[in-house]
Amino acid sequence: MKRAIYPGSFDPVTYGHLDIIRRSAPLVDELIIGVLNNNAKTPLFSVEERVKMLNEVTRDMTNVIVVPFDGLLVEFAKKMDACMIVRGLRAITDFEYELQMAQTNHKLEPSVETVFLTTSLEYSYLSSTIVKEVAFYHGDISKFVPDVVRERIREKMNQKGECR
Which of these CATH numbers, 1.10.10.10, 3.40.50.620, 3.40.390.10, 3.40.50.150, describes 3-123? Predict the structure, then answer.
């Protein structure tokens, strides 16, 4: 069975993420969405909340599973018996960083390859950070995230008193 991992923070999951998920899932037998618990960041959503949202928005994709992880990505890939890491590229600045990470991961674990997919043009500008900033100022984020995610963002920001 050919397994790939699409890792990220997904805080929150956007249409750009879903674009990469939908396009990479048919390339493998199983696509594992690895939800990173990154201690260096202060996320809007907990890992559990992000996993739940991703499960909701990918429920129609039969070969996609969502798994939280922390630590080194290549260690997670070995644990999940994955041979490939999928990364999305929006711009040349993404490529520089992602190339460095891919080379480091390959040095750490030569059996795991990294595959890059360019994000569809309609989502090339989109990031989770932009979504959160627009939501913070009560902007319309319906073009950026699925409805269920939009509602969760509003609820979370209202709970934290972060909507202006």
Answer: 3.40.50.620
How far is it, in rounded angstroms, from Cα 16 to Cα 123? 5
Q: Of 2, 41, 79, 143, which is the active-site residue? A: 41
- Residue-wise pLDDT for 60-92, tens only, equals 999 999 999 999 999 999 999 999 999 999 988
Report pLDDT digits (tens) over 98-110.
Answer: 999 999 999 999 9
> Which residue among 22, 52, 90, 154 is the active-site one?
90
Q: Reply yes or no on whether 128 is catalytic.
A: yes
| Residue 90 annotated to the active site | yes
Q: Is 142 a catalytic residue?
A: no
Catalytic residue among 17, 50, 132, 156: 17
Q: Which H or E run contains 134?
A: helix 128-136
- Give the pLDDT of residue 41: 76
138 is catalytic: no
Distance CA 98, CA 109 (A): 16
